[in-house]
User: What shape does this take?
Amino acid sequence: MTVEQKLTREKLLESALSCVHCGLCYHTLPSITESEKFSDTCPAGLYFGFDAYFSPGRNELARAILREEFPIRDSKALEQIIFSCTTCGACEATCRYVNDTNVLPVHVTEGIRALLVEQGIGPLPSQKKFADSIRRVDNPYGESGERNTWIENDSKRDKADTDVFYFVGCTTGYRYQDIAKATTSILDSTGADYSVSSKEICCGSPLIRTGQLDDVERLVRENVRVINESGAGTVIFSCAGCYRTVVKDWPRILGEPLPFETIHITQYMAEKISSGDLKMNQPMNMRIAYHDPCHLGRHMFPDAVYDEPRQVIDNIPGSERVSLDREKDATLCCGSGGGVKAGLPEYAEYIAKLRVSEAREKGADTFVTACPFCVRGLEDGAKKEALESGEKPLEVIELTELVRKSMGGN
Ligand code: SF4
Ligand code: SF4
Assistant: This one.
């Protein structure tokens, strides 16, 4: 990456210094929730319980690092603080409400990570491992085989002259293939002209979030080349992380606007339900809580995708949607973002467990989300919560899979 594509030290320092240490980002604002029990929003602060892990502490540390106020050395404590932020953006959302300074805490975290990685400090060992896999085989899971073994409709494989490019993403493509199958069956049933490419590679999100920027520009340019080659004018995503990265990070890295339109599958489904092209007729008889993925909500500010997934759920026959205290801008991260699931798995699982407990306490029997990576985190959280509560694990399901079931599919 070129220097222009990184946030400059000056910009990072300006952001860090604009934090007034009011501490309001430790909790959701009372105007959003009245429940004290479900008011914590910073996963890192909640788990580690020390000021340095909350946003103002991170800003203090960033200031000291940027001004070289202490000799930076490879210390486990420093590494843990810097790489434990899930980059969920909860602090950023609260800050947006309480002041008009240019505080962008997630940018500060990502910028400081990149700066330290350049100096040989961090990332965490398993985060290094996924970066090595991306360098080697273009995906963080180290998979070297055929990418699209899951495809059910063969005519869509590497289809040329297409309207829509389905960007599957590595987590869906290699670990949650039922989401890819559900997405393509929704596209098929609504008559979309789409293509799934065997040449798609990692979008760069795991590297950007953990400050490992060396290989990012190559990934972005190669993906753009492959998408352009397909002729598609629109790219559709079922992974919230890929969606955020392409919409928000790629233009910054490319230095120009994207040469195609973008849409998340939840937006597509809501649109097709409204037009009558997507029909669900199997009653699901569920009490559903919806978990807002950070990457589909706060990270997409000011175009957060909050209403469309709820519209889709509200149209599933026989289902009832229950509200959580921490929703939309105030959502509690699933605990997996920012490289935390790989780097600090116990902490990630603890946060996911808390999130699942919240859904259970609100009367849900099913926890639905719209991101494969949140599904992964919440599934682990549901197992842990069930072990501790002695209850049956809450069902965790991704929205396209639920829609497919309600359409009469498997
Ligand atoms: S990040 Fe914003 S909300 Fe949090 S302490 Fe700083 S100024 Fe206050
Ligand atoms: S981005 Fe999330 S985890 Fe990181 S400091 Fe802000 S609220 Fe905490």
About this structure: DSSP finds 18 helices and eight strands in the chain. Confidence is low (pLDDT under 50) at residues 1-5.
